[in-house]
Amino acid sequence: MKVLLATCATLPDGDADDAALVDALGEVGVHASYAVWDAEPAQADRVVLRSTWDYTDRLAEFLAWADRTPGLLNPAGVVRWNTDKTYLVELAATGLPVVPTTVAGPGFADWPSGEFVVKPTVGAGSRGALRVAAGDVDAAAAHLAALDGPALVQPYQAAVDEVGETALVFFGGQYSHAFAKGAMLTPDATYDETGLYIVERLGGAQPSAAYRRVAEDVLDAATGVLGLSRAELLYARVDLVPGADGTPLLLELELVEPSLGFRQADAGAPLRFASSVRAALSR
């Protein structure tokens, strides 16, 4: 059995967080190697999306590649839905606790009264996201115009500055582990040497029961919208932040190419991932 781990040309050998995956897959009898997503395709039983982090600048090309790639995990329909962050509006409509989200286009003027965030509907690694001071609508409007496309407008959840985000990771629909992410949109935020993403401050996490329940609800709602079973998602990362009253709110659901926090997880996490890949090969 052969699996390709799709990456981008900037990271031809994958991201360091995924360093244990090739060996973990080998332990369950799956030969894995990295392949740049837009290079000449190689034969494989499955293609697993990993560090394809240049897709945001080439979305149409990336989606066309996903559509024609057999055995893609997660599937192309999931990729198309999840690369456009307006899915948050769709999930909020199911009753999930989601960070309040408005889609803004040209001429938008309904800015939040407090501090808020403007970010592109297609983006990764917090690129293009701007934290806007309360009342600074000129900066917000200028940023929206510079994005040259639709954007999300969300009230900034100030508690994240103290406690950060909690990312809950699932393999094959089953909870695996969680990790903590420090606030990203801070004055000292810097990009890594590749320029693909803002450097994250990460650590281990033990999410509360409330966080676990919301994350489970998110997966149930998303798979319902997509018409899939939870087992059909090779991986999912549910990013939650505390609202003003401490209630966990969905910030993002990552189903395309998320970092999965292996370096912050227990040693069994790569093996759980490998078992999920093996299960997908049998379907």
TrEMBL record:
Organism: Saccharothrix coeruleofusca
Alphabetized PANTHER family for the sequence: GLUTATHIONE SYNTHETASE, PTHR39217
Membrane-spanning intervals of the chain: none
Keyword Nucleotide-binding part of the UniProt annotation: yes
Single Gene Ontology MF annotation: metal ion binding
Listed name of the protein: ATP-grasp domain-containing protein
Ranges for domain ATP-grasp: 88-282
Signal peptide: none
Domain of life of the source: Bacteria
